[in-house]
């Protein structure tokens, strides 16, 4: 149980284009989803927290107009990197949490999406 | 703000030896401390966690200890195996901001056969 999927697993795009990444909880309802960014050999940096049906809460220094987050249902959140540039190239990982079970504090991670902007 | 320090950044051990990774947190209101294992190019996987009302927790070869007074918690892996090789992240969550996990910087563990 508690499986989180991400799509696509990797994407290459040209500078200036927008890229959408999907995060789905497959067998549970995710009341909260998180988006992280991870640079090579570095830790997980939280970008934003999204609760279903409400606006995402962005961490300091993360541009909300650049990284658009939508959490339209209890099983799907999307991250759109708008007007992507080479410096946006990174590994983006989502995680999901449900408060509907006793271990509601656990975050379950997706497999990540590797973005390369040329 | 909240901060979690993790040491060492790299750790090499011989198969069968023990490995210990230590973390220190800054927010005294932290009450939940998970440990994640991330293999190369893969997702972080929760391997064990501990809550602030417990001092130690064990699951087979893995154990976690918590010292609330010193704001330290540690991961102990005994009888290490090559498949334990991965990056390990500690994290802490505040009682007053239950949404966020603050992650440590990671420890790259290599177990040599």
How does this model look, in words?
The complex is a heterodimer of chains A (118) and B (113). Chain A has strands at 4-7, 10-13, 19-25, 32-38, 44-51, 57-58, 67-73, 76-81, 90-97, 108-109, 113-117. Chain A has 118 residues and is an all-beta fold. In chain A, strands 2, 4, 5, 6, 9, 10 and 11 form a 7-stranded mixed sheet that branches. In chain A, 35% of the residues are buried. Chain B is mostly beta strands and 113 residues long. Chain B has strands at residues 4-7, 10-14, 19-25, 30-38, 45-51, 56-59, 62-67, 72-77, 86-94, 97-103, 107-112. At the A-B interface, strand 5 and strand 10 of A face strand 4, strand 5 and strand 10 of B.
Features:
heterodimer, A: 118 residues, mainly beta, seven-stranded mixed beta sheet, four-stranded antiparallel beta sheet, 11 strands, 0% helix, 51% strand, globular, B: 113 residues, six-stranded mixed beta sheet, five-stranded antiparallel beta sheet
How are the secondary structure elements laid out?
The complex is a heterodimer of chains A (118) and B (113).
Chain A: E1 4-7, E2 10-13, E3 19-25, E4 32-38, E5 44-51, E6 57-58, E7 67-73, E8 76-81, E9 90-97, E10 108-109, E11 113-117
Parallel strand pairs in A: 2-11
Antiparallel strand pairs in A: 1-3, 3-8, 4-5, 4-9, 5-6, 7-8, 9-10, 9-11
Chain B: E1 4-7, E2 10-14, E3 19-25, E4 30-38, E5 45-51, E6 56-59, E7 62-67, E8 72-77, E9 86-94, E10 97-103, E11 107-112
Parallel strand pairs in B: 2-11
Antiparallel strand pairs in B: 1-3, 3-8, 4-5, 4-9, 6-7, 7-8, 9-10, 9-11
Count of DSSP strands of chain A: 11
The SSE string of chain B, one letter per element, is: EEEEEEEEEEE
Distance, first to last CA of chain A:
37 Å
Helix percentage range of chain B: under 10%
Largest interface (CB < 8 Å): A-B, 19 and 21 residues
Outline the low-pLDDT stretches of chain A. none
What Rg of chain B, in angstroms, do the CA atoms define?
A: 13 Å
Mean pLDDT of chain A: 91
Strand content of chain A: over 45%
What's the overall average pLDDT of chain B, rounded?
Answer: 93
What can be said about the biggest beta sheet of chain A?
7 strands, mixed
């Amino acid at each position: 149980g508690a499986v989180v999927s991400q799509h696509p697993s990797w994407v290459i795009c040209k500078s200036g284009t927008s890229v959408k990444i999907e995060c789905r909880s497959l067998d549970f309802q995710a009341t909260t989803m998180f988006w992280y960014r991870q640079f090579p050999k570095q830790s997980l940096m939280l970008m934003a927290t999204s609760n279903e049906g409400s606006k995402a809460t962005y961490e300091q220094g993360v541009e909300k107009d650049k990284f658009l987050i939508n959490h339209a249902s209890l099983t799907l959140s999307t991250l759109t990197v708008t007007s992507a540039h080479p410096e946006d190239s990174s590994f983006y990982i989502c995680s999901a949490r449900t408060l509907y079970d006793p271990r509601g504090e656990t975050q379950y991670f997706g497999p990540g999406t590797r973005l390369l902007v040329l | 703000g909240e901060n979690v320090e993790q040491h060492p950044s790299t750790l090499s051990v011989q198969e069968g030896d023990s490995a210990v990774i230590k973390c220190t947190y800054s927010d005294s209101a932290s009450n939940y401390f998970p440990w994640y294992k991330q293999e190369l190019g893969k997702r972080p996987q929760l391997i064990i966690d501990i809550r602030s009302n417990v001092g130690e927790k064990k699951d087979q070869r893995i154990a976690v200890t918590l010292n609330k007074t010193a704001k330290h918690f540690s991961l102990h892996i005994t009888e290490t195996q090559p498949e334990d090789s991965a990056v390990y992240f500690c994290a802490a969550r505040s009682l007053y901001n239950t949404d966020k996990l603050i992650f440590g910087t990671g420890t790259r563990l290599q177990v040599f056969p």
